[in-house]
Each structure stands twice: as structure tokens, then as C-alpha cells.
């Protein structure tokens, strides 16, 4: 696939993520009243292990994000890299744990689609308008900027544009800032993701990075996962067959981060509140437990911290 086709295929991955999340949330794995405005259909049935996998992914990331908001008492910023059609902003608003400002970054085409949905659906636009104090709300084409929420179109491989746009929309490098990427770094090369996280470490002295992605791809199961993505002509520049939990950590340790943790999703799943895990395991019968284990062993959460302000954010974990 040429690079345009490959980027186009990568962009379509945000639909997959949202369709799977919509399906799982419609089954009761967790509540997300906003996904319906971004993806109309719940799509075809997804296997129970897929739904449990998404449950672990969503709850795992939420756990770390919410802990960061708590530690910083919401006196912080959040930057969701490759956010796609993610709905976290609206959840934080509903739960009254909004950071000072919430930023999202994605390709221009995805950003334009997201803004179109927001513009045309009052349940999405209302919280933005309500949390905005002046008449300067920017909501057009490829740009959305309000007091609390900003959507930026930029390519994560082009750091100077990313930096310019974050500055233009008033990111404050001195405020504690959480960066997150959920199934995103796998689409850029290891060099590009290293540059990205190094730039963040150099620029934001008090910050945390949460990365969720594939890991341990060097076996038969990993091979099948890669083949499935390749069949869709995705440019998997970041899939590194040797990527282990250690190499996930190394990406951050070699670029100026102070403390780094990485857990596979099997471990994360076993550390989530077990009462809720028991509840979701009753939702759908899962015959082959091994299938879920294999799936969970091939994804991980890695989180890294820099704590200049000594807020204790390096103690955040499961
Ligand atoms: N993070 C969202 C989630 O978990 O629901 C979306 C995940 S989707 C699999 C990957 C997202 O990363 C897509 O929205 C895609 O457009 C974005 N992305 C991939 N490479 C990118 C790049 N170089 N610059 C900006 N966005 C990128």
C-alpha cells in the first residue's frame, strides 16, 4: 500500500475501536451514553472475549487517568493523542472531574468528522458551550477550541506542527499534564514514537504518559493479530516483533522519563475491582477461557512519569 492508502487505513481504525466500544457498552460492560452520537450502529456481534478485552482496556486506562486527576486535584491538563472518536471528555464532565483543559489530537480528516458530530448533536455540544465563559468558542471545520476542550488536527510524526498548535491553543507546560495514546503508537515507527515521548519529557516537567497497545507479538497468536491488521492495508510501522514489556518500558527510560511501569492486560484485568469483573463475566458466557487469556497477554498498558512538582504521581498504579 502506498503511504496515502496506508494512512487512510490507519484513520479507519478509529471506527473499529468505537464500534467495538459501542457494542460492548450496549451489552452493559460499562456505560457510555455518548458513543451513540459518533457511531450510529452497534454493528455485528462481537465475541465475548473481544468485549472483555475492551472492558479491560477502557477500565485500565480510566483507572490511571482518574488517579492522575485525583492526585493533581484536576489542576492539570490532559492530551489524548490519536483520540479518534473517544468520548472521555464527556465522561469527565459528567463525573465532575474535568482537568483545566482537555486536548485531543488526530489527523485532520478524523478531527473534521469529530467536529461535525459535535456541531450537529446538542448532547455533545451542550457541555462545551456550558463550560465556556466567553463568546469566543471556535467550532468550525478542522478547529475546535473552548475553555475546557480543544481538538487539534496534527500528524504525530510532525512534532513542530504539533508543538505550534498546542501552544496556539494555550497549553501550559508548567501544569501537570497527562498524555495518553490508546492503540496509536503502533502506527508510527519506533523512532517517531521515541521522538514524540522525548519531546514530551523535555517539554513537560510534571507529566505522565499512558500508552495502551499490542505487546508480545512474536508468537503464533501475535502473527495472526498482525495479519488481520495487514489485511486491511494498515501501515504497522510500530509493530516490533521483539516488543516485550521491557522494550515498552525502555522507550520511556531512554527518553528522559523518571519512573516507568508496564503490565500486560492479563495482569491488569486481574487487578481491576473484582466485583465489577464478576458482574461483566456474567453478562455473556465465555466457553474458551484460554482465548481471553491469549488476547489479554498480547496487549499492555505502560505508564511513565516525570514529577518535578513532587506530587507523588509516580506512585500511581493498580
Ligand atoms: N484512541 C482511540 C481509541 O482508543 O478509541 C482511537 C484508536 S484508533 C485504533 C487509532 C487512532 O490514531 C486513529 O484515530 C488514527 O487516526 C490516529 N492516528 C494514527 N496515526 C496518527 C498520526 N500519525 N497522527 C495523528 N493521529 C494518528
TrEMBL record:
EC number of this enzyme: 2.1.1.233
Gene3D superfamilies assigned to the protein according to its UniProt record, in alphabetical order: Vaccinia Virus protein VP39
One Pfam family cited in the UniProt record for this chain: LCM
Catalytic activity as recorded in UniProt: [phosphatase 2A protein]-C-terminal L-leucine + S-adenosyl-L-methionine = [phosphatase 2A protein]-C-terminal L-leucine methyl ester + S-adenosyl-L-homocysteine
Molecular function terms from GO: protein C-terminal leucine carboxyl O-methyltransferase activity
Recorded GO CC terms: cytosol
SUPFAM superfamilies (alphabetical): S-adenosyl-L-methionine-dependent methyltransferases
Keywords for this protein: Methyltransferase, S-adenosyl-L-methionine, Transferase
Family: Belongs to the methyltransferase superfamily. LCMT family.
Name of the protein this chain belongs to: Leucine carboxyl methyltransferase 1
Organism: Triplophysa tibetana
Amino acid at each position: 500500500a502506498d503511504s496515502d492508502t496506508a494512512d487512510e487505513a490507519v484513520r479507519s481504525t478509529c471506527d473499529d475501536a468505537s464500534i467495538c466500544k459501542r457494542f460492548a457498552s450496549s451489552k452493559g460492560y460499562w456505560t457510555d451514553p455518548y458513543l451513540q452520537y459518533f457511531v450510529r450502529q452497534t454493528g455485528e456481534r462481537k465475541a465475548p472475549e473481544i468485549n472483555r478485552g475492551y472492558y479491560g482496556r477502557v477500565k485500565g486506562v480510566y483507572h490511571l487517568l482518574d488517579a492522575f486527576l485525583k492526585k493533581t486535584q484536576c489542576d492539570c491538563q490532559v492530551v489524548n493523542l490519536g483520540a479518534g472518536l473517544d468520548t472521555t471528555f464527556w465522561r469527565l464532565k459528567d463525573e465532575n472531574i474535568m482537568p483545566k483543559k482537555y486536548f485531543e489530537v488526530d489527523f485532520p480528516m478524523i478531527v473534521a468528522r469529530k467536529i461535525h458530530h459535535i456541531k450537529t448533536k446538542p448532547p455533545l455540544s451542550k457541555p462545551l458551550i456550558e463550560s465556556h465563559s466567553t463568546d469566543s468558542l471556535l467550532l468550525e471545520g478542522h478547529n475546535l477550541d473552548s475553555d475546557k476542550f480543544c481538538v487539534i488536527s496534527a500528524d504525530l510524526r510532525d512534532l513542530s506542527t504539533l508543538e505550534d498548535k498546542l501552544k496556539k491553543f494555550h497549553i501550559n507546560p508548567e501544569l501537570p499534564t497527562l498524555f495518553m495514546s490508546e492503540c496509536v503508537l503502533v502506527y508510527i515507527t519506533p523512532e517517531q514514537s521515541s521522538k514524540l515521548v522525548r519531546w514530551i519529557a523535555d517539554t513537560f516537567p510534571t507529566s505522565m504518559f499512558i500508552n495502551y497497545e499490542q505487546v508480545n507479538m512474536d508468537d503464533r497468536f501475535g502473527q495472526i493479530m498482525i495479519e488481520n491488521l495487514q489485511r486491511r492495508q494498515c501501515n504497522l510501522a510500530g509493530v516490533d516483533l521483539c516488543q516485550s514489556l521491557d522494550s515498552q518500558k525502555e522507550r520511556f527510560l531512554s527518553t528522559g522519563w523518571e519512573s516507568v511501569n508496564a503490565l500486560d492486560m492479563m495482569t491488569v484485568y486481574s487487578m481491576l475491582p473484582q466485583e465489577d469483573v464478576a458482574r461483566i463475566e456474567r453478562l455473556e458466557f465465555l466457553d474458551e477461557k484460554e482465548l481471553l487469556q491469549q488476547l489479554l497477554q498480547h496487549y499492555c498498558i505502560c505508564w511513565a512519569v516525570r514529577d518535578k512538582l513532587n506530587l507523588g504521581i509516580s506512585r500511581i498504579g493498580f
